[in-house]
Amino acid sequence: MRRASIPLGRLALLLAAAAGPWCEAGAGARAREHLALRTDAQFDAWDVDVSGLHLHGVRAAVRGLALWADEIVVTADGDGLDIRILGASAATGDSPAAATTATAPVAATESPPARDRFRIANAGVPIRIHAVGTVRVPVGDGLEAAIEDPRVEIDRDGWPTLHADIALHGLMPKPLRVDGLVARRGLGVWTATADATAPGGDTLAIALRLGRKTATATATAADGGTLGVTKTTGDPTVRVEAAQFALGHAGPWLAGLVADHGVTATDATLSGVIEVTRGDSLRVHAEDLVLGGIVVSHPRLSARPVRIDGVAIDGDAVWHGGRAELQLVVGHGDARMAIGGHVDRDAIALDLDVAEMPCDGLLEAMPAGTADALVGLRLDGTIAAGIHLEVSLAEIERARARGDEFAPGELSFEFPFLERCRTLADPANVDLAALRGPYRHRFGDDGGGVRERVLAPGAPGFAPLGRVPKLASAFIALEDMRFWYHDGFDREQIERAFWHNVVRGRVRRGASTISQQTARNLWLGVDRSIARKLQEAYLTTRLETEVSKTRILELYVNLVELGPGVYGVDAAAEFYFGKPATELDVLQAVHIASLAPAPVTYAERFADGQVDAAWMDELRGHVRRMHRNRMIRDADAHTALRGELELLDRTRG
C-alpha cells in the first residue's frame, strides 16, 4: 500500500485519462481504476447519459491538501474532451475530511513515468478543463488563494496551459490581485505571464520561468522600471536585480512599513543587485545598488524633510551566531565612505573612513534639506576623514550601575577641515565683515514673529562686553570654560558628552561651545537636529577665523535666549531683577547665566520670585568654582556666598 502524490492541477488533468472509455460497458469501474492509480481519489457515484460521464462526490488528497468536487462532467466532441468541475473546494490535509480519503492499491504493472511528469499522455486528444466558480486554496501561514474560474487546456502533445485570475488573501490588509494568468508547460520548463496589482499600487506585468535548474521572476512597470528575482536549484543564493524600479509601484502598504520611522518610500527608486544567501549564516551582498527618492522626516535629523537621491551601496552584511559584520562602501555625489565593523553580544566596533575628495564635493554630497544655511558656499582643497569607535556593552552596564563618567570604550575622530579646506565664498546669508561693526540682526521669536536688533554700542538693549564683565565671566564658567583657548570646538567636552549619552542611552548632555551657540543664534535658529549641527560646525569655523573672541562673546551675551521672548543679558536683567545688566552683582550674574540651558522652563520655575535652597546651593557652587579659577575677586566671591537672591514676582503683572 502506498499513496501517490500529484499537484492540484494534475488531478483534473488525470480525469481525462479516465474519460476515454465512458461510453463503454464498465465505464464507472474503469474511471475508478484510473483515478486510483494516479491519485489518492475516490467518488461516491457515477452515471452516463447523452451529455457525458458524470462523477459525483469526488475526493482526493494531493500534497497535503484535501480536495472535493460536487460533480465532474466529461464530454467529448470532434475537437477533444471537455471536463467541467462543479463545486470545487480545498482544505489543508489535516482536516477531518482529508483523513477519510481512501488509498487505492497501485498495480505492479503501472507503466513508467513520462520524461516530464507534467506532460499528459492524452494520445493526441486535446483536453479542456474548467472549474466553474471560485476555488479557494489554503497556501500556508494564513494565506489563501481564491482562484477564479480556472481553465486548463492540454494540447495534442500533452502540454498543459493554465488560465486564471487569482486573489491572494492574508499577505496584505487587502487582497493581492493576479489577473490574466497564463501558465504554460514545455519540456522541463514552466513559463507564465500575468498582471499583478497590490492594494493601492500600480499594475505590474509579471513574467515567470521555472526550469529544471533555474527559476526567474520579472516585474515590469508601465514606466519601464524592472525588478527581477533569480534562484538556482542547489544554490542557497537568491539574486534580486532592479533597474530604476519605483518602490511605490507596490502600493501604500510599503510606505506603511517605514512610515513609523519617518521615512517616505513611495517615490523611491532602486537599481542594482542584492544577493541574499542563507546557510550557516545569512549574507546580504549589494552590488552597484543605487537608492533614490527616499524622503526622511525626523526632527532629530533635520527640521525639514530630507530627500536622499543617488546613494550608491556596495558590500556585505553577514549575520552568524549572534554576530553581525558589516563591510560597505556608501557613496553620494563625490563622497565615498567605507563602513566596517561588527556587533555581537559583548561589543560594538565601527570604522568610518571618508576617502580623499574635494572639499566642495563634501558640501555637494549633503542631501537636500540638510544644508539650507550654506547656499552659495564655495570651498577649495581636498579632505579625508575618519571615525573609530569601540564600545564594550558590559562596561556600559557597569558604568550605569556606578553612575560615574567612565568611558566604556574608545573614540577617535579625524576631520582636518580647517587645515585642508579654504573658503572661496561664504554662504549668501553670512556677512562676517559686518559682524566686526554695527550688525543688524533679524531673527524669529517663539511666537513665530520676526524681530530685528542692532548689535552695537548705543543700540537699544545692547550691552557692550566691557560693561558686563561679571556676566561674561559667569557665562564662560558655566557654558564654556575653555572658550579663550579652543578653535570653536571643545573636543574633550565632545567626547565626555558622547560617552555620557551612550551610558545613559539617550541624548542628555551637549558640548556646544559659546562660539557654536553664537553661530546658531546668528544664522540657524533654535532647531537642534543633526543637519543643524553640521551647518553649525562650518559656520563656527568661519566665525572663529574671521571674528575676534571678544566680539564673539559680546555677540553671544546679547543674543542668548534667557526667558520667554527674552534675548540678551540686558533684557534678562530687566525681566528678572528690574535693572540693567551693567548693575548686576556676581550672584545675580551667575543666576542669569544658569538659565541658558532651559530658559523658558526656568522662567516658569521662578515666576513668583521665590528661589529654593537647592537652586541657591547650585549658584554658590558656581561662585566657588569661579573663585578657584580666579575669575572673580575675593571680595565679590565673599559677598556672593553670603548674599541672597531677590527676583521680581512676575505673577503680579
Report the end-to-end length measured between terminal Cα atoms. 99 Å
The CATH homologous superfamily of the domain at 435-652 is named: Biosynthetic peptidoglycan transglycosylase-like
Shape: elongated
The main β sheet shows up as: 25 strands, mixed
- Poorly predicted runs of 5 or more residues: 1-28, 30-39, 94-114
Rg, rounded, reads: 38 Å
How much helicity do the residues have? Answer: 25-40%
Give me the CATH fold name of the domain at 435-652.
Penicillin binding protein transpeptidase fold
Query: If you average the pLDDT, what whole number results?
Result: 84
Give the amount of beta strand, in percent.
35-45%
CATH class of the domain at 435-652: Mainly Alpha
Structure annotation, total helices: 18
Using the 3D structure, state the CATH architecture of the domain at 435-652: Orthogonal Bundle
Structural class: alpha+beta
Instruction: Compute the number of strand runs.
Output: 32
